[in-house]
Amino acid sequence: MNRSLTVHRRVHDPNEPGAEPPVVTDESLVVRNYNHETVEVTVQFLDPDDDMAFDRTYALGPGDVASTPTRLPRGVYRVVARLDDGALGTDGRDTADCLVGSDPTETAVVETGNGVVSVTEGVV
Prior knowledge:
Elements: E1 29-33, E2 39-46, E3 52-60, E4 65-68, E5 75-84, E6 93-100, E7 108-113, E8 116-121
Parallel strand pairs: 1-7
Antiparallel strand pairs: 1-4, 2-3, 2-5, 5-6, 7-8
């Protein structure tokens, strides 16, 4: 069976009356666990007014990767990641300002390893 998929991208024109930024539907958050133990990572996105725009906790096994479409309007968000793992004896935290959009470079990346959590912008 041959199926085709058509992808449409709408360009946001801020001068258009009543124009809202497009909602991001691609996977705009990637969470990776490089630890040899299962970890629990809480990821939050804060908008420019410091309001919570996204909040989710992931339980990731060794080597697991989770990718999530956040369905947020394209923009810069303060991404806060917290590693809650008593087994590793850590309660690490990291933050970064990330542009979240539809392009792979407009992705928040949260990675854990050696009991540490880090937040970066863009899939490498």
